[in-house]
## 1
Amino acid sequence: MIDVSVIVVSHNDERDLPVSVGSAVAQRGVSVETLVVDNSSTDRSRSVVADMAPAARLMALSENVGFAGAMNRGIRETTGRYVLALNPDCRLSSDFAAILAARLDARAEFGSASGRILRGSGEQLTATPVLDSAGIFRTATGRHFDRGSSHFANGRYLVEEPVFGTSGAAGFYRRAALESAKISTGYFDSDFFLYREDADLAWRLQNLGWKCLYVPDAVGYHRRRNLPERRSAMPPLVNMHSVKNRFLLRINNQTPAECIVTLIPTLARDAVVVGACLTIERSSLPAFSWLWKNRQRLWAKRREIQRKVKERRREISAERGRLPVKDAEAGRE
């Protein structure tokens, strides 16, 4: 059986693919399959991957279905016990997959893992002293961020510990956890198209009882394109999806209790977003019409997710009820 399926979603990434895919096929200590799902690129991306055959396979799509949709197709096409969702602008150390697979093999309650991702620079994604992500965390007001993002590493985040979720730059998932989290729109919710889909999956996995483990010994390097301070320079379509997805996150996953606790800061942030869309970023206004047009389907999907969460929690409760007392207590730690 394949240990790790590395899936790279590309769209006009011919310059980055040799480095990212090269680091995927160079993984050591585990059996790896590498699949590149190409979102209808118009550059030489497909030729670059073809030149790497048979070490890497290519799935060429006739249309751009977004990161989430393409990743879902890649997950269905692969067989590894673990899935590594790798961005084309991310390079992995050669033992990245082996370290995370070993840690999750030893911790059955963890459904995903995050490595220590540093910022990469230049075409070779050369290491910099700046952190990109030490896993995703949630604030008391319900917002999500990459831990340590844009700060100098300086020996920070060197302790292995649970976190809220793993960054989509190099997200490592137990396939069994992905199967339990799969909904009508896929493992990753294809409604997100791009951006925030990793936070959505992290939230869903948490609600389903799967933990995420941060493992600092697994190191990668990522050239991050989308940062708050660069928003004005990002393509309008990207910003529109970012606005849309902030509301999708809550529709999918937020409980009534969480809504009440975070209501005031959430409404304040929403007011700022709506105001910006009405004034300086009018290209993002279609996000609201999309949400309204799809409101019935989105609420049906929310009910689907909440049913899945309730079923999973009943399963966990039943499993713990069958365990000896000491084993059940260990499962709650």
## 2
Amino acid sequence: MEYVLRMAVSKARAIAEQVNPGALVIAVDTTVSDQDQILGKPIDADEARQILRQLRGHTHQVYTALAVFSKDDKILHSDICLTDVPMRAYSEDEMEAYIATGDPFDKTGAYAIQHKGFHPVEEITGCYANVMGLPICHLKRMLCQFGVHLQGEGAGACQGSDQGTCLVYRAVIQGEI
């Protein structure tokens, strides 16, 4: 968890050096953790296969850290979103077909929850958008700390996704989580 926070904060500070005055910098880092082991992006089909086999049939965690940095004020706000992700017992054939698409190679944890053909995740009760890599409700709440108030239900954009309904976004916006 500290790793993703450190990465997001480092990204925000580095990017702030390159932007115009008055800018707010938003940086994000996501990682998959399985039994305290950080899983990265697989470098080849063998590593993708190993990661997907490791995750199959049990629950792992997805951590996304967000950092918002005001270049002018040098103010930094950060937050971490955690989602428990139960994986179903997908078959070897399903896994091999997915690996053949090439999609796992740029995905932390070797999968994309939103992939159209491979659905490795059971129904989750946490933040679906977090598993995709950007927990919108957390970002909306953080932007409010800088006086930026987004209109509408943008934070509920994950509602109606293929994976079900997010049960946590209202609690996040209201500061309960």
## 3
Amino acid sequence: MNVVVFGLSITSSWGNGHATTYRALIKALAARGHSVTFLERDVSWYRDNRDFTRAPYCTIELYEDLKCVPAQFGALVAAAGLVLLGSYVPDGAVLADWITRTATGVTAFYDIDTPVTLARLKQGNAEYISAAMIPRFDLYLSFTGGPVLAEIEEEYGSPRARALYCAVDPDVHAPIEGPRDWQLGYIGTYSNDRQPALERLLLEPARRCPDRRFVVAGPQYPASIAWPDNVARIEHLPPVDHRAFYGAQRYTLNVTRADMITVGYSPSVRLFEAAACGVPVISDSWPGLETILTPGREILIATTADDVLRIFDQMSDDSRRNIAAAARRRVLGNHTADHRARELEGYVHEVIADAAAKNEEHTRALGRSLA
């Protein structure tokens, strides 16, 4: 296929997890023979923080505003076999209208923020998609699986809501030998609704273990946060450094946004990255987690600081390594970018097959009416 993607960003991973997701998925699509063009709005906050400007596996085009899109990319979109619009794209709701009127191939809305999107739709403030646009896309590709898919179809009229979880690129994320300098680490942009869990599951254990070292990486944390002396801060960690970051931890922490805990079935890309790097993950709990990784065998669950300290004190090195190895096997067997590329192909073929069946039935019905 010729694939066109309108996404938040592929050029900058600053303050967002979309870039690494797009890079991994598009690389896998290209490896399977597809030609991909990524179209990104040229905005100042990503322009000033770019860590990726060209790729051997796709064409990257930047555009200034919506006015130039039809003239620059109208023919490309009209000829594409698949046109995909991602969540959080600036003026996405307006772009959705143009895409669904212009494209002749399969169209998909790729929601990398499904629980947040649904909450915003209910509040009427989802700038990047509107309820009226959802039925016009052939596919609603959701980072969240489980019962929410039926809600998207039944409440918002999507003809096909399908799970397309985030994934990991095993060429980029793999175990690395070296000292485990940090007892526990976390990577993620500051989020007000994640901060209480970060306080509970990392900062409080750090205060109670002054002889151990901890680390938090990610931008936009307020200056008002009182970081314990044994917690190192990294403002921004480019994806190229993630492997070394995970490899220097004895455990890594996965913390989930409130909307995603409520909806469930929303695994983080960081969870898959850490597991692929062979680091045991300590996570908060949410519905559907057991369908991704088995608690106690492939992932460790903590609710309180005491739970985290118990893991530190009671888990042997062998048990820690065994959990990490089991999680890595599970992720490489089910959650790589190649798995997602194949799933996406299957969903596109489903749309095409359904359209062909409808056309055949229409032809038969027309034949009967003329007989």
